[in-house]
Amino acid sequence: MAKAVADGAKSVQGIEVELDYHTLPETLVDFNAILIGIPTYHHDMAIDMKKLFEEAATKNINLKGKIGATFGSYGWSGEAPRLILEIMKNKFEMQVTEPPLLAKYTPDQTTIEKCKELGKKIAEKLMHTA
Ligand SMILES: Cc1cc2nc3c(=O)[nH]c(=O)nc-3n(C[C@H](O)[C@H](O)[C@H](O)COP(=O)(O)O)c2cc1C
User: How confident is the model over 45-65, as pLDDT tens digits?
Assistant: First the structure.
């Protein structure tokens, strides 16, 4: 899903995309848009993601106004992308795209296309606000 989102964003001329599995809170400030892919386990987000936002809050990392979006695979409840979107919106005052893009278990081709569209839509939004 993340690769498809990145491909969609890269299809827009002038957009630079970095795809990382892990990041540091300080690194987040380098980006105009932050798109996070996360699966749901035990009705929650992964512990390293929780830690990332906890540390970002503790260190007063300023993400205000940055564009945010989330996506992820799930089995039956799919809270994690919603929880992160709420944190982006309410704690960090980011401009978020709602709702998150969810795939039930393995994403099918239609969902992969939606991932590409999400990346492209955000990249186009960035180009218009630049
Ligand atoms: C131990 C375990 C706990 C899970 N808990 C949840 C859950 O609370 N809610 C949910 O929607 N899916 C849950 N799932 C399903 C996963 O979100 C689903 O398999 C998803 O496709 C995993 O994505 P990944 O392969 O990218 O890790 C759970 C799966 C496992 C193995």
Answer: 999 999 999 999 999 999 999
Q: Where are the domains of the chain?
A: 2-124
What span, in angstroms and rounded, lies between the C-alpha atoms of 102 and 87?
17
- pLDDT, tens digit, for every residue of 24-49? 999 999 999 999 999 999 999 999 99
pTM: 0.96
Mean pLDDT for 100-125 is 98
Domain 2-124: CATH class, spelled out: alpha beta
Pairing of the two strands 95-96 and 33-37: unpaired
Q: Report the atom number in ligand 1 closest to the C-alpha of 44.
A: 8
Pocket-forming residues, ligand 1, beta carbon under 6 Å:
39-43, 73-78, 105
CA of residue 41 to ligand 1 center, whole Å: 5
